[in-house]
Design the sequence.
């Protein structure tokens, strides 16, 4: 077939247009880079470089003042043998188990009940969410005072002859972590209520109605109809809760600073103490790296399950 | 987009970036240029450090051309590493030694010669800042631990101030029978405060010379006398004589409240607390903390609370050194003493008007020192790794997470490690 002049010229036009578009795109890219440059510079200096350093510091002995001295894997060997690291790790596991069960289950049932409320729902939402906006310092201090054995709730229960209702609070080391968790739950579970409530409003109510018409009881509706629809939200909440649990720091720091006798110590509070008052930033970095690997492991497990089970978020 | 518009955009973006970068530098540059000297905030330690204001005011009056800018630094180590530490710093002896090793601290020998800081200074206090043959700081106070008690309650019940462990135990049993908590104490916000008990135990059980040898010489933390003393404390605590076995669950302020409200009869405290008056409706008494030996004699552990150092990177070293000479002026000496934070110098306090509590405590310490009944605070003289455990882990003993023997073995290993690193306080400097 003969190639006509018009065919050649139109293909040439297309080619020229493509080249022009590419040039325009490249020039546009430059402008884009200029806009993000200040933020990028800040991120490199304040985030990326320290993050890269955090892979080097665990192999050094560094008191924060001197030049870090390379010591190989000595910090990791010490961490493996350090009973406080294992106590802290176990506390983080307990924190995770607590947070992915009790608060989430409570939040779910609360959101489920709130969904049925027509009048005053905003007020209820605001009430449950209000504790989430209190700063950790204030929330921790409130609960610290509640738990005070000489002037807190127990003192008044004792005076009223209701000492059987007393909760040991922070006085019994074995229960101190649970006491801190209660305070943390009081502060934070309102956020889960709001998330779940928002997710429930997106559900297809016709499925629920159909199930009820078919004779499904309340709990069967929850188990077979509501929960499957909430799965994407629940998965995200559980993932973020797990990650947050292994980074637990603020409430512990405010209320007990890891005490008494490391009973409430978490990985974060331990390496914070090591790197500040302990002046062992190298060893602290090794513990922090261990914590990072746990987080990576959680994400890998989540990604694997998501692929295997076909979870869509 | 037209070329003109592009050029405008590039110029605008460059201006923003440049101003951000320059803004970060300008603050530092301008303060250096304006004869501004950065000094610690007078509120650094609450009422205790209020005497700093007297020093600053005196200097400022003579040097109106220089501006003293008070700054608060959360962590001096971080500030030094970042180059943001003030010109004048307040640091403990070991902290200063570490900073000096990294060349962050200016040696002061030349300034000692010029301004005669040590004219009236106690030799042992001056030596606490001797490192590698150089004087790297000026000790700002000396402090001691003592027994604070409800004098009115004692007189009402006919109780005698205990002087040894046996007397403490018997008195505590009697107090408990009358539903009075023997010792007020709270450590949830100050695990390191437990170290005060250790200091008292070490000095009273081993004596001042024994304490010295323990921190820096041949005596071991696993010495049977010490193991016994620590074990007796653990039993004492578990019998409910210290904040009713709840000291770990309440703060230091809560502990003080137990004393102020009369629920507890006694507490251990330091002379630094004299600056803040205890608002009580009873008379407060001061005595040497009882010996932890069954029939021993009290020994008051003394030490240096902190000291002044000069930032090696300061552009105003001479001015700061001159400022430090004002620390020894009569007005500052008096202000420090009135707050119970006594400068480690020989001074005549007879003409000064002190609060009764300060007078009582200072007499107590001077009396003990003159009789050779003063010892050494562990946080001033024990080695860094040992102090770190003393100030973080004693609760493990009385909460029975570990035994006294194992805990003291750990301290001994840390002392040996510090000895290898050359971090022990030198015996000749005591």
Sequence:
């Amino acid at each position: 077939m003969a190639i006509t002049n018009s065919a050649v010229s139109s293909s040439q036009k297309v080619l020229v247009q493509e080249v022009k578009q590419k040039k325009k795109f490249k020039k546009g890219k430059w402008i884009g880079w200029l806009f993000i440059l200040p933020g990028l510079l800040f991120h490199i200096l304040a985030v990326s470089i320290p993050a890269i350093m955090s892979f080097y510091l665990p192999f050094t002995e560094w008191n924060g003042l001197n030049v870090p001295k390379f010591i190989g894997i000595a910090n990791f060997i010490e961490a493996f043998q350090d009973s406080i690291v294992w106590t802290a790790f176990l506390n983080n596991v307990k924190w995770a188990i607590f947070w992915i069960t009790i608060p989430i289950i409570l939040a779910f049932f609360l959101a489920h009940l709130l969904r049925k409320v027509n009048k005053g729902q905003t007020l209820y939402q605001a009430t449950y969410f209000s504790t989430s906006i209190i700063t950790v310092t204030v929330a921790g201090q409130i609960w610290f005072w509640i738990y005070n054995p000489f002037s807190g709730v127990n003192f008044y229960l004792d005076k009223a002859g209701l000492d059987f209702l007393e909760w040991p609070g922070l006085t019994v080391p074995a229960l101190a972590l649970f006491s801190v968790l209660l305070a943390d739950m009081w502060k934070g579970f309102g956020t889960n209520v709001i998330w779940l409530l928002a997710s429930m409003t997106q559900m297809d109510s016709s499925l629920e109605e159909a199930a009820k018409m078919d004779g499904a009881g309340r709990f069967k509706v929850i188990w077979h109809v509501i929960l499957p629809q909430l799965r994407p939200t629940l998965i995200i909440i559980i993932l973020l809760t797990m990650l947050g649990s292994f980074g637990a720091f603020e409430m512990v720091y405010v209320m007990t600073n890891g005490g008494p006798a490391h009973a409430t110590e978490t990985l974060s509070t331990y390496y914070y103490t090591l790197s500040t008052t302990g002046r062992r930033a190298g060893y602290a970095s090794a513990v922090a790296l261990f914590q990072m690997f746990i987080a990576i492991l959680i994400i890998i497990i989540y990604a694997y399950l998501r692929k295997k089970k076909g979870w869509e978020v | 987009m037209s070329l003109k518009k592009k050029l405008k955009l590039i110029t605008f973006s460059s201006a923003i970036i440049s101003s951000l970068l320059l803004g970060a530098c300008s603050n530092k540059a301008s303060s250096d240029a304006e004869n501004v000297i950065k000094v610690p905030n007078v509120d650094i330690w609450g009422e205790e450090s209020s005497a700093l204001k007297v020093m600053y005011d005196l200097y400022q009056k003579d040097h109106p051309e220089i501006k003293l800018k008070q700054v608060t630094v959360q962590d001096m180590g971080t500030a030094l590493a970042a180059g943001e530490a003030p010109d004048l710093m307040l640091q403990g002896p070991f902290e200063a030694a570490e900073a000096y090793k990294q060349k962050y601290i200016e040696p002061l020998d030349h300034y000692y010669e010029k301004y005669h800081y040590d004219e009236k200074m106690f030799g042992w206090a001056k030596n606490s800042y001797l490192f590698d043959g150089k004087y790297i700081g000026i000790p700002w106070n000396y402090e001691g631990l003592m027994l604070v008690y409800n004098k009115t309650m004692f007189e009402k019940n006919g109780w005698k101030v205990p002087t040894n462990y046996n007397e403490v135990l018997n008195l505590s049993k009697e107090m408990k029978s009358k539903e009075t908590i023997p010792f007020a104490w709270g450590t949830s916000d100050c695990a390191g405060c437990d170290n005060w008990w250790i200091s008292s135990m070490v000095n009273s059980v081993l004596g001042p010379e024994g304490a010295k040898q323990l921190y820096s010489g041949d005596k071991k933390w696993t010495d049977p006398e010490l193991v016994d003393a620590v074990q007796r404390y653990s039993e004492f605590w578990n019998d409910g004589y210290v904040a009713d076995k709840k000291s770990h669950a309440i703060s230091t302020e809560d502990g003080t409240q137990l004393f102020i409200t009369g629920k507890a009869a006694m507490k251990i405290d330091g002379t630094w607390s004299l600056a803040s008056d205890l608002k009580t409706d009873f008379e407060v008494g001061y005595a040497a903390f009882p010996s932890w030996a069954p029939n021993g004699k009290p020994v008051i552990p003394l030490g240096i609370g902190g000291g002044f150092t000069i930032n090696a990177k300061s552009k105003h070293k001479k001015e700061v050194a001159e400022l430090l000479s004002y620390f020894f002026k009569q007005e500052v000496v008096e202000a420090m003493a009135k707050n119970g934070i006594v400068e480690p110098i020989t001074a005549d306090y007879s003409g000064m008007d002190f609060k009764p509590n300060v007078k009582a405590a200072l007499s107590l310490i001077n009396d003990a020192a003159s009789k050779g009944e003063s010892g050494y605070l562990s946080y001033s003289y024990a080695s860094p790794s040992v102090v770190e455990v003393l100030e973080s882990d004693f609760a493990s003993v009385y909460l029975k997470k570990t035994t006294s023997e194992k805990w003291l073995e750990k301290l001994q290993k840390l002392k040996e490690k510090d000895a290898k690193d050359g971090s022990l306080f030198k015996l000749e400097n005591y």
In short: Residues 3-33 of chain B form the longest helix (31 residues).
